[in-house]
Amino acid sequence: QVQLVESGGGLVQAGGSLRLSCAASGRTFSSYAMGWFRQAPGKEREFVAGINWNGDSTYYVDSVKGRFTISRDNGKNTVYLQMNSLKPEDTAVYYCARRGNSGSGYSPSRYDYWGQGTQVTVSS
Q: What pLDDT does 77 receive?
């Protein structure tokens, strides 16, 4: 059984930064691509960023390009999301997920394990 535990969320003013972490259990973490998603109240879950198994390939939704950076440390079984220049529209619950299936990494259906989420609130 795989467990994903996010941390690092909180309340920040617009223009500020936060770093989210996602710690994974299990010995197969380095074999899987990972992703970050977010969900704001009343909205569907949205892809934010993805990273391949060894970290040499990353991709982002257009709205966060140049502001967010996804990375991973396979020695620590952890994936990170560095968020800079935060905007009020970034307010959401952020989830990390393991990509268990092939196909588009932008689709939540390609991910088989999810964390419980961490709240990010950006005030104007």
A: 96
CA 106/CA 93 separation, integer angstroms: 17
Please tell me the chain's helix, strand, coil percentages from 3-state DSSP, rounded to the nearest 5: 10, 50, 40
Helical (H) or strand (E) element with 10: strand 10-13
Question: Which stretch of DSSP H or E encloses residue 7?
Answer: strand 4-7
Give me the mean pLDDT over the 13-35 stretch: 94
| Cα–Cα dist 82/23, whole Å | 15
Asked if 114 and 5 count as a contact pair (C-beta separation under 8 A), the reply is: no
Token pair for 56? 């040499």
Q: Look at 42-46, 105-109, 114-118 and tell me which has the smallest mean pLDDT.
A: 105-109
In degrees and rounded to multiples of 5, residue 111 shows phi and psi of -110, 135
> Please, how many CA atoms are within 13 Å of residue 41, restricted to the half-sphere of its CB?
4
- Tokens 């709240």 belong to which residue? 119
